[in-house]
Amino acid sequence: MENHHLAGQFLDSITEENCRNKGREVSQKALINKLNSINFHGGHVLITLSHRRYPQKITLKAAPQPCFNAQVDLLWLEPEAVQGKLKTYEFDHLIISDGLKLIVVRPDLVGISPQGMRILLPKMGCEVRSRKTQRFPCLPLQVDVIQNSAHFKGVLQDFTACSFAVKLSTVAPQTFNWLNPNEPVMVVLSNDTIPLFGGECHIVYQNWEQKTRTVVLHIQRQVTPRFKTKEFRSPRQELIPSPNIQFLHPLTEKKIDLGVINLSGTGLAVEEDLSHSVLLPGLIIPELQMTFATSFTLTCMAQVIYRRPRSDDPGETRVICGLAILDMKMEEHVNLLSLLQQVNDPRSYLCNRVDLDALWHFFFETGFIYPEKYAHIQAKKERFKKTYEKLYTESPRIARHFIYQDKGVIMGHMAMLRIYSKTWLIHHHAADRTLSQRAGLVVLEQIGSYINDSHNLHSSHMNFVMCYFRPDNKFPRRVFGGVAKYINNPKGCSTDDFVYFYIQPDTTLGLRAEGSCHVQPTVEEDLVELSYYYEHLSGGLMIPAIDLEPGIESEDEPDEEFSRLGLKRQRLCFSLKRDGELQAMILINLSDAGLNMSELTNCIQVIVLDQDNLTRGELMAALNRLGRQYFESDKIPAILYPVKYAKDQDIKYDKIYTMWILNCQNLDQYFKFCNTFLARI
User: Fold this and answer.
1) Fewer Cβ within 10 Å of end Cβ, the chain: N or C?
2) How far is the C-alpha of 558 from the C-alpha of 421, rounded, in Å?
3) Is 464 helix (H, G, I), strand (E, B) or coil?
4) Whole-angstrom distance, CA of residue 272 vs CA of residue 620
5) Which pairs with CB-CB distance under 8 Å and at least 24 residues apart come from 205-212?
């Protein structure tokens, strides 16, 4: 048995006379159709019984059977709750509820029993508007209600867009006296696999049963930000035609279909009728589909982050709900961002199918492939072409390219590779200034917009972005180096200089250095020592960004993604030691030719720790041994940190590269600097 909290508050005094004043009349024919609809959908009606001696009413649930005339049979949903009640209670009226309105019916009673009842419908019923927002029946989901360390468990009963009813139970030594109705509670709704809602609520109603208790909770916050608030937000686009979203509501498993008002790479807004609103602020939607003019569909996980009245609706009959994209397959997110970037600028392309002949022509014309670089790659040019065909035509999950072109002519280009578990490498920035003065800036803006839209998604694997630039290259030094100076916090953005040189094969080095130092696979203690050393010397982001943090084993290594594409990406870690003391860390980076034209993804990376005692001969002997073991070429590229060691040991190097790393949580500061910098150009 259940005292129904929705009906009791204003039905006790309804009579035939004042019923007409509260709402429109409903014909017998319409009543029959509504009851048959309830039967078809497996729903129920409410039967109100009045105590024979006292002014007390109870409300029970009953299932209407198919009816074809005024005679209706109803079966109790909880027959055990009726036992013993029929001697002290008598039938009063029938309530038909659609969650928004109540229809009060006073039929003639034909018969009543512990199994059900038979009635004759009157000529008219009375419709009473009960609430502005419909209350919906729902799945019996698990509810956790927590207040001041008291934890109550319950089952969801029904909900509106701003409140829900929960049936709670207690476990000794708990009592309902522990639940203070004047204090807020923290509520978590969940299904068998994931939480669906979590937030602070106020108790607006509770009955006073002892073993279980029905509590109505009102959601306190109508805005529930999912991510850190950003000053530089993704622009919202109003598309024509506008897409629709469809999803199974997680609380009812009923299909919902709503039109999208505006859309960005991080979220969207939809409009609902106030009376039938189903989107609770904070609600997580595990699987939401966006359909674009029936031509293609994108699927994501989303969360309702706000609900507010539409400002241009004086009748206050509509609400706007904003949803944040929590996660999305990267291929589908790229499709979405590609569409939005095209809407913003038809000449901006993200991961489009590129004419590779045009791209190679662009690289040579812009001087991106200069004579010295071509001398290095020309012997492997066929392998380069195959690598680029895979990266630019097969839409891989580990590569992104950004192209600014007009009428098929490429004017600007930039690319990214997911080279570490949570870090993307920005490279291949080139522009043809004879065709466009802004092409280089546009692709830089494109890549910034992409990172801003993507980094919060788990599937993007993007905690950091990095690049290498030469300090004597004016533009990247002013942009990327300028960002680091502007942020002025190495945990937000860091720069570390490496020397770049080629290891020349020397079979005698190993004999001369024999017995002094030895190479062994890196162990946990070595990573701890490395982290201490780097923190002392730099304090930057290199250790977490390139997967050298001690105690963390990544489950998202990109090697498998490269392998799926038929490409190679492998990283091996070795420690150079003397008498157990760590002298240097040597990282063997193996990848396909041309993955990065400067071979920064296919080289030996060295971090020297003992700058005072490790000699050039000892280091070069170790590099030669490892180089002969893992590289086919006689000319093996290497980068070494710190620069001071290379200079002190008179190691001949070709150039210096700065490793620039940005923590994606500092994007606002990145954009602030870029806006100021670009305004001066």
Assistant:
1) C
2) 6
3) strand
4) 69
5) 205/5, 206/179, 206/181, 207/3, 207/5, 210/176, 211/169, 211/170, 212/167, 212/168, 212/169
11 band by pLDDT with thresholds 50, 70 and 90: very low
d(CA 4, CA 578): 79
Tokens 């770049």 locate to 500
Q: How far apart are CA 276 and CA 319, in angstroms?
A: 10
Tell me which DSSP letter residue 2 carries. B
pLDDT score of 507:
52
DSSP track, 144-198: EEEETTEEEEEEEEEE-SSEEEEEEE--TT--GGG--TTS-EEEEEE-SSSEEEE
Respond yes or no on whether the N-terminal peptide bond of residue 173 is cis (omega within 30° of 0): yes
Confidence band of 127 (pLDDT split at 50, 70, 90):
confident
The total number of residues shown for the chain amounts to 681
Rounded CA-CA distance 278/220 in Å is 16
* Mean pLDDT confidence for 437-455: 92
Q: How far is CA 96 from the centre of its chain?
A: 41
Tally Cβ neighbours within 10 Å of residue 116: 19
Other beta carbons within 10 Å of 142: 16
Q: What is the pLDDT of residues 465-517, one digit of tens each?
A: 999 999 999 999 999 999 999 999 999 999 999 999 999 766 555 445 445 89
Q: Which of 380, 445, 393 is nearest to 414 (CA)?
A: 445
CA distance 354 to 560: 25
What number of helices (H) and strands (E) belong to the chain? 18, 34
Alpha-carbon 679 to chain mean position? 33
Of 411, 417, 396, 418, the closest CA to residue 363 belongs to 411
Q: Cα–Cα distance between 620 and 510 in angstroms, integer?
A: 8
Tell which residue, 504, 486, 484, has the closest CA to residue 494.
Answer: 484
Angstrom distances, CA of residue 579 to CA of 56, 352, 610: 89, 54, 13
Nearest to 128 by CA among 13, 24, 273, 15: 24
Strand arrangement, sheet containing 399-406: 348-350, 399-406, 409-420, 423-431, 464-469, 655-663, 493-503, 636-641, 604-608, 581-591, 569-578, 518-521
Alpha-carbon dihedral sign for residues 229, 231, 233, 238 = positive
Position 444 pLDDT exceeds 90: yes
Render pLDDT for 596-611 as a digit per residue (tens, 0 to 9): 888 899 999 999 999 9
Which of the two residues, 646 and 677, has the higher pLDDT score? 646
Residue type, 564: R
Query: Where is 22: in which H helix or E strand?
Result: helix 16-22
Beta bridge partners of 466: 425, 661
Per-residue pLDDT tens digits for 62-84: 999 999 999 999 999 988 888 88
Kindly compute the dihedral angle of the four CA atoms of residues 524, 525, 528, 530, in this order, to the nearest 10 degrees: -100
Residue 186 near residue 146 (C-beta atoms within 8 A): yes
Give the separation between CA 302 and CA 320, rounded to whole angstroms.
Answer: 16
pLDDT in tens, 336-362: 999 999 999 999 999 998 999 999 999
For residue 362, report the phi and psi dihedrals to the nearest 5 degrees. -60, -45
Tell me what pLDDT residue 23 has: 64
Task: Report the predicted TM-score, pTM, of the whole model to 2 decimal places.
Answer: 0.83
Residues 6+ away with beta carbon under 8 Å from 491: 539, 540, 541, 663
**Per-residue pLDDT tens over the stretch 314-341:** 667 889 999 999 999 999 999 999 999 9
**∠ CA 34-36-39, rounded to 5°:** 110
Full DSSP string of 144-158: EEEETTEEEEEEEEE
